[in-house]
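To: structure desk
From: M.T.
Subject: fold request, one chain
Message: Could you run this one when you get a chance? Sequence is below, nothing fancy, just the single chain.
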Amino acid sequence: MVRALSSGIIAASSLAAALVLGASAAQAGGGCRGSACYNLVNTPPVYGTIDETYQVRPAQVQRRVVPAEYETVTDTVMIAPERRIPHHRAAVYETVTEKVLISSATRRWEVTRDAWGNTVGCWVDVPARYGYQSRRVEVSPATIDYETVPAVYTQRQRQVMTRPTQVVREEIPAVYETRQRQVMVSAGSQYWSRSRY
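Reply: Done. Structure tokens follow.
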């Protein structure tokens, strides 16, 4: 490693000495000719194009309010309940006439005089006595009949909430773009090249 480094140093020193001697000879003799001359060669830098991706807009989070939703519902509502109305019917009476016994049949002892003036006694049958009596009798008793009146209903509409208000979170991804730019692949250089002529 040390030897290679030393040889390189020696070679560089020899090249530098030759260049100096050549330059001196050129100055002394009015120009450098042949293989003793070196030309300074300039190598231009080399550029290339690369693609770069950069962020145009960062990722964002947006929140938007979604309003509540409603719908109309129809309900059946009772406005009057079922009722029972009583109807009273009075009792019905009639007059009935009946044959009734006033006095039952009996026998009584009667004393009379006959045609000659003699006192005579005998049993006499007294028939029963009847009469007619009217009275009021109930033909049908008083009653109560109930009339059922059905309930009364109506239709009413109302709004009900089917979904409450919501806050929706939306993520918007970042936006990227690609652009090209030139970069130096290798830098330019200068070196001495031995002249061929």
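Reply (cont.): The longest strand covers residues 46-57. Let me know if you need anything else for the meeting.
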